[in-house]
Amino acid sequence: QVQLTESGGGSVEAGGSLRLSCELSGYIDSSYCVGWFRQAPGKVRAGVARIYPASDRPYYANSVKGRFTISQDNTKKTLYLQMNSLKPEDTAMYYCVADIARQAGPDCLPRSSSGSWGQGTQVTVSS
Predict the structure, then answer these.
(1) How wide is the angle at C-alpha 42 spanned by C-alphas 63 and 70, nearest 5°?
(2) Quick one: pLDDT at residue 59?
(3) Which of 1, 4, 25, 50 has the fewest CB neighbours in a 10 Å radius?
């Protein structure tokens, strides 16, 4: 099972930027999808962005399109989420996820025994 460790969260003012990182360790191959979810206080977790290494094609939630960019380094062992033009409504705990793509739920929601969640990193955007 892959282990995920996030970093890079923090507090910024509206309009600012942050870059989240997620270190992937353990077994993972091109059959996996990787991505980011977030959970704001009192709300359910929602998919933010995901990527399928087999194609390198990214997908984004409508709320972050044009502002957030998901990417991986050349080794596919680090996942990034570049967040620009941050808004107060982006305030949430952000989680890195991974799972076998054909077994994962929507937005790469981990569902299989090979799926994983990171511990989360807090992002706070003030107005």
Answers:
(1) 35
(2) 96
(3) 25
Measured in whole angstroms, how far is the alpha carbon of residue 50 from the centre of its chain?
7
Instruction: Write out the H or E segment, with its range, that includes residue 13.
Output: strand 10-13
Lookup result for tokens 């409508």? 62
- Report residue 89: phi and psi, to 5°: -70, -5
Query: What's the sign of the alpha-carbon dihedral 99, 102, 105, 111?
Result: negative
Fill in the amino acid letter for 57: R
- Residue 106, phi then psi, degrees to nearest 5: -55, 145
- What letter does residue 75 receive in the DSSP assignment? T
Name the helix (H) or strand (E) containing 79: strand 78-83
| pLDDT tens digit sequence for 53-98 | 778 899 999 999 999 999 999 888 999 999 999 999 999 999 999 9
